[in-house]
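Entry for the shared binder. Reason: the reviewer on the internal report wants the predicted structure included alongside the sequence.
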Amino acid sequence: HVQLVESGGGSVQPGGSLRLSCSASGFTASRGCMGWFRQGSGQEREGVASISKDDVPTYASSVMGRFTIFKDTSKNTLDLQMDSLNPEDTAVYYCAAGVLTMCTAFAIPSFANRGQGTQVTVSS
């Protein structure tokens, strides 16, 4: 049974930073594809970032250069460092995991294994 638990969401002003963390059980981070997707109010799910079992990251163009994905295989955790946040980043952020040959940010929302989500609000 795969369980993913996110933490670290909150409210921040534009230009600020937040770091999200995902703790995984029942899934080995070093053996699969993990990542983050988000869903804003009334919007479609958007893959934000992914990292493969070989530690190759990919990012959505909307967050490239601002977000960084980290994986700690010793702790089986997945982090997302978010810098230079803007109001368009406001959404519920979900951690997801699966086994996929092509591990890309675009594919992350399709994973059945996902957490409950954590709210990120960027507002002045």
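Summary line for the report: The chain has a mean pLDDT of 96.
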